[in-house]
Specification:
five-stranded antiparallel beta sheet; alpha+beta; 7 helices; three-stranded antiparallel beta sheet; 321 residues; single chain
């Protein structure tokens, strides 16, 4: 009897609907949780870190190019010039940098370095901020497209464009002969050969013996740039403790020297007593050197007093013209 009543009971729709809702909720919860465990975590500050570091390196590069646009600051052949970030800040080429966290960059391990390579200079810019460090390399030199100074950064695009234009100018245009010119050339070939006229011998011109005179012109130094001890406009406080370096007067390879000045200066009052302290300044002097040369003149007189009085000496060499 119980079995017959159970079989005649209507379909349990409410139980089925409840189970269906629980399954749907469970499936949606799994779909929502899977991406949380499978997707990689992204560093939100990576782009900002690279941007701050790259921007500061570019600022250092522009300041270095401005500084080395003056030829007296460039190194000589086979030498390199290093300028730290501290020196650049002291010379007011730029301000000190800070990283993404507001911490100051290392002013001693951050630097720019210039090395001469043939007719160009290799510029390296290195910046270190906390644990971040990076550098860039570029070339500077005298290029035809430099505008505001004789020294600027190498631009491969401009150089290639200029080279292509020069190649176009060097290519001669091929002229296509016209029909009339072809006919004239054929007629010239058909003409009978003309009788050859024997030239009469011309008298040889009189020959003159010339004597060589030579004069050695020594090299010339320019005057040193001003470092007046009574005017501190060209002097800077020696916070980096640079040593004094004085050149020999006749050393043509020494064109830059450092002078040191110590001054006793008033700094304040303590309990009615004036206090003085010794401050150390430095000044960089530069000069130029023009290489000597040899001037040679030829004269038909082996005792030419006009040349001798001007410092020329008879060498003994002769030639006939």
């Amino acid at each position: 009897m119980y079995t017959e009543e159970y079989n005649k009971r209507p379909f349990p729709f409410r139980d089925f609907l409840l189970k269906f809702i629980i399954v749907v909720i469970f499936v949606l919860l799994i779909i929502w949780l899977i991406p949380k465990f499978t997707q990689p975590k992204l560093k939100k500050t990576s782009t900002k870190e690279e941007t701050v570091l790259e921007q500061n390196i570019l600022k250092m590069k522009e300041a270095a190019i401005t500084y080395y646009s003056k030829e007296e600051n460039l190194p000589e052949d086979g030498k390199k010039e290093v300028l730290t970030l501290r020196q650049m800040v002291n010379q007011k080429l730029l301000s000190a940098f800070r990283d993404k966290d507001g911490k100051a960059c290392n002013v001693d391990k951050s630097y720019v370095q210039v090395t001469k390579e043939n007719e160009e200079y290799l510029l390296k810019v290195n910046l270190q901020c906390s644990e971040e460090e990076d550098y860039i390399l570029t070339k500077i030199g005298k290029y035809t497209y430099c505008e505001n100074s004789k020294i600027c950064e190498k631009d491969l695009t401009k150089q290639e464009t200029q080279t292509q234009e020069e190649q176009k100018e060097e290519k001669p245009k091929e002229e296509v002969p016209k029909e009339e010119e072809k006919v004239e050339k054929q007629e010239e070939k058909k003409e009978e050969p003309k009788e050859e006229v024997t030239p009469q011998p011309q008298p040889e011109p009189a020959k003159t013996t010339l004597y060589e005179y030579k004069k050695e012109i020594p090299g010339v130094f320019s005057n040193w740039s001003s470092c007046d001890e009574n005017n501190l406009s060209n002097w800077k406080l020696n916070s980096d403790r640079l040593p004094e370096s004085i050149c020999d007067n006749n050393d043509k390879n020494c064109l830059k020297q450092i002078r040191i000045l110590r001054r006793k200066e008033y700094i304040g009052v303590d309990n009615g007593v004036k206090i003085y302290a010794t401050r150390v300044y430095y000044c960089i002097q530069t000069r130029t050197y023009q290489e000597g040369s040899t001037d040679i003149k030829w004269s038909s007189n082996n005792n030419d007093q006009s040349l001798i009085q001007n410092g020329y000496v008879l060498t003994g060499k002769t030639k006939v013209e």
